[in-house]
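Renewal narrative, Specific Aim 1. Our central claim is that a sequence can be written position by position from structural information alone. The example that follows is taken directly from our test logs and has not been curated for this report. It begins with the structure tokens describing the chain, in the order in which they were read.
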């Protein structure tokens, strides 16, 4: 981890197009300004982790959805002949 010391108004550049500026320091809090392209997602870590956990939870299913709804349709009828109405 790179650790830097900055004063109010000073900044740190990340790559060619991201700039982090120290806006204010109050006690133990530091207010940062971030200048980045619109396509770069910038988020607080705790919010990022909640979103990530929700996404993982949404993709993890214990029951296959097709298996759970297959009983709604019942077995195919013997009266029906394929394709003939």
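The sequence written for that structure reads:
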């Amino acid at each position: 981890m790179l650790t830097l010391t900055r004063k109010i108004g000073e900044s740190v550049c990340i790559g060619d197009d991201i700039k982090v500026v120290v806006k204010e320091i109050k006690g133990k809090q530091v207010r940062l300004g971030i200048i980045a392209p619109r396509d770069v997602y910038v988020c607080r870590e705790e919010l990022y982790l909640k979103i990530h956990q929700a996404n993982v939870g949404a993709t993890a299913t214990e029951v296959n959805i097709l298996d759970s709804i297959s009983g709604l349709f019942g077995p195919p009828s013997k009266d029906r002949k394929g394709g003939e109405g």
